[in-house]
Amino acid sequence: MRLRSLQILVVCLLVAFWYVMTAPGLIPPFYFDKANRAAFFFGEPQKVFWVIVEWFTTGEIFGHLGITLLETALGFFIGSAFGLAIGLWLALSPTASAVMDPYIKGFNSMPRVVLAPIFAVWFGLGVWSKVALGVTLVFFVVFFNVYQGVREVSPNLIANARMLGASRRQLLRSIYLPSAMSWVFASLHNAVGLAFVGAVVGEYLGSSRGVGYLILQAEGTFDINTVFAGILVLTAFALALDAAVGSVERRLMTWQPRASETEKV
Amino acid sequence: MNSSVPALKLEDITCRFAARDGGGAYTAVANASLSIAEGEFVSVVGPTGCGKSTLLNIAAGLLAPSQGSVSVFGQPLIAADGVNRRAGYMFQADALMPWRTGIDNVIAGLEFRGVPRAEAVGQGEAWLRRVGLAGFGDRYPHQMSGGMRKRLALAQTLILSPDILLMDEPFSALDVQTRQLMENELLALWAEDRKSVLFITHDLEEAIALSDRVVVLSAGPATRPIGDFKVDLPRPRDVSEIRMTPGFLALHREIWAAMKEEVLKAYAAQKAA
Asked: Domain ABC transmembrane type-1, which positions (chain A) (predicted)?
């Protein structure tokens, strides 16, 4: 509780600082030569707030937000599915892994954001070019975790399952997959964040809808308050997504020991 | 019952591992032969690092010997064709699936064999009761103590009623009290249907207290059996009481005399390395 109030205090201080520094005429200008310049460059918190309120009261934001979240979700699921499938395949087949190794490394070290214009050409300005960008970002996070996860399955566990009569298929289903899943969940927070980045960056580089598009539009007219409003809305939803992932993770990973867990009697 | 055919027979087994640093190959086991009769409880003791586990992995069909042959009830066992289907293996380290509850771990083997779930769970519950874990079926392994996990592993192995039980220092991680309890429980379960058991341990007292026969291995590398002692102590036994009997002490003295030199050799080799 004390922690929560301190956290709120930090936000209040930040907003207060922002207001004091930008409100025209409140304090004499010390860097800019005109009183309203600071507000022009940094926006004003109360105006940002009203932009957000207006977005939600008129419902203007929902369409854009829906598109951005749809792109995030699609990028996340498709990227994770590919990462899981290819991670499992390469981890279980040493030859394929040896052949693909330089390509995987190459694609991973490439700054993938530069692919966004290409995707826009390939998939158009709609949802799918953003999904494609999200997929390329999410894929590698999940892929490397699955790959690592499968490789680090304890040989004991595999030997035990084999002695209990597991076939190759059953080994995959009851040993490799669950073991990889714990690594996938470890990377999930990252993956969701990256899918979100992919969607917003994609929108920013070329689109007709989405929160990234709103930000781009506002920037075009030097409407800094709307830019900040867009950023704040995105941040809030990124946090919400992260919390959602956290709750899914807690539900699915009950078998994992948590630090200093005690049984309630 | 054809008791003339051994349950498990290792003949002239040699096992060489390629060295990691490009040096000469490491010979873990050399020309080892071992035979276990049906219903016999055999312990293999030897100094640390002498390739006891290697021998067990060969018997399980998890590892192919470089040379020599393994037969199970007269049938040759070829590791490339799969593991020893008539054997159950209890590992030294934890080998339970951490993402499965107790009951799901116990019935894993039945599940792999395609037994319908309801039936498997019924059998699993019965086994949980037999190993003293009734009511703990919904716990995950991390919520159990070391002793409970060992019981779970025992139930997981025994539910398939294997004809041969391979055990690799299964109780070495337990504290002394829990360990003696587990040893007694193992003997009680074994007495019910007398499977063949190959029990690996470095603890001579444990070996004598449990077994019909104790085989002593030489220090590594190139381990081979150097002694074979019959334990004719009466059954049923209580492992903590039998340790005090004169028969036990005499055997212990006799086997230890054979083992001592090998233990010292292994110790010297480890110190030199």
From this structure: 65-245
Question: Per mean pLDDT, which range of A34-43, A210-219, B1-10, B113-122 is the poorest?
Answer: B1-10
Test the A interface: residue of B83, B107, B112, B140 with most A CBs within 10 Å = B112
Which structure tokens are listed for B258? 């054979």
HSE-CB of B57 using CA atoms within 13 angstroms: 18
Enumerate domains of chain A plus CATH numbers.
Answer: 66-252 (1.10.3720.10)
Which range has highest mean pLDDT (A219-233, A247-261, B49-63)? A219-233
Question: Which of A157, A181, A263 is the closest to B97 by Cβ?
Answer: A157
Counting one residue from A and one from B, how many pairs have CB atoms under 8 Å apart? 70
Q: Give the model confidence (pLDDT) of B142-166 as tens digits.
A: 888 888 898 899 999 999 989 999 9
> Residues B24, B8: contact at Cβ < 8 Å?
no
Other residues' Cβ atoms within 10 Å of the Cβ of residue A112: 19
**pLDDT tops 90 at residue A108:** no
Residue A186 near chain B (CB below 8 Å): no
Q: Which residues of B touch A257 (CB under 8 A)?
A: 142-143
Q: Does A231 touch chain B (CB under 8 A)?
A: no
B89 contacts in chain A (CB < 8 Å): 159-160, 163
Task: Give the ipTM.
Answer: 0.86
Residue B35 contacts residue B9 (beta carbons within 8 Å): yes
Radius of gyration of chain B (CA): 19
A254 touches B: beta carbon within 8 Å: yes
Select the residue of A165, A255, A256 nearest B85 (Cβ to Cβ): A165
Q: Do A165 and B88 touch (CB under 8 A)?
A: no
